[in-house]
Design a protein that fits this description.
Layout (H helix, E strand, L loop, with lengths): L1 H22 L13 E6 L5 E2 L2 E9 L6 E9 L1 E3 L8 E8 L2 H4 L4 E16 L3 E13 L4 E5 L4 E2 L7 E5 L5
Parallel strand pairs: 1-11
Antiparallel strand pairs: 1-2, 1-5, 3-4, 3-6, 6-7, 7-8, 8-10, 9-11
Length: about 170
């Protein structure tokens, strides 16, 4: 009798442990978020990847602290999370180099998009894709912006290319 109770107890304890072990797979080890990755490009006769020295990037109208980049060192790429509560997001790039900072010059980048929730799996849940991505920007130092395919998914690749006017050195 005691042996039967012990077996039932062990079985009852083992089942949740097996279920928990089965749920902790590497199925969601990949990028689960659709965070647009922006890459800094030099808008030279032949465009190439570049870095910006001393910039700050923050969101306009975002809840809480929206500073994404606040760096005195070189920045070649950064994430620009899109809002999921409305189909538009705006960021400011403040140039912190002393000569430029004294003038208060900033560039603004605005994105509009359609939000599309996508079910990944029962283990991973859902992610948001952004489609029909359209961009606007000021032109103090930014030459142009592209979003190839006008779509952002959870693929871990650069999604936005920001081309800056830079000198060839």
């Amino acid at each position: 009798m005691r042996k039967a109770k012990a077996i039932r107890f062990l079985s009852a304890a083992a089942v949740p442990a097996l279920i928990a072990a089965g749920c902790s797979s590497d199925e969601c080890a990949d990028n689960k978020n659709s965070l647009p990755l922006a890459v800094v490009m030099a808008s030279l006769p032949e465009p190439q990847e570049a870095v910006l020295d001393s910039i700050s990037v923050f969101g306009i109208g975002a809840p809480g602290d929206s500073v994404l980049v606040d760096s005195a060192s070189n920045v070649g790429e950064f994430y620009l999370p899109f809002r999921i509560d409305k189909g538009e997001t705006t960021y400011v790039i403040r140039y912190l180099q002393r000569v430029i900072a004294e003038t208060g010059t900033c560039d603004t980048i605005s994105f509009t998009y359609d939000i599309k929730p996508m079910f990944v799996s029962s283990a991973c849940g859902a992610v948001y894709y952004y489609e029909n991505v359209r961009m606007g920007h000021t032109t103090h130092f930014i030459d142009s912006i592209t979003c190839p395919g006008e779509r952002i998914t959870n693929a871990n690749v650069p999604n936005i290319f920001i081309y800056f006017r830079m000198n060839e050195d």
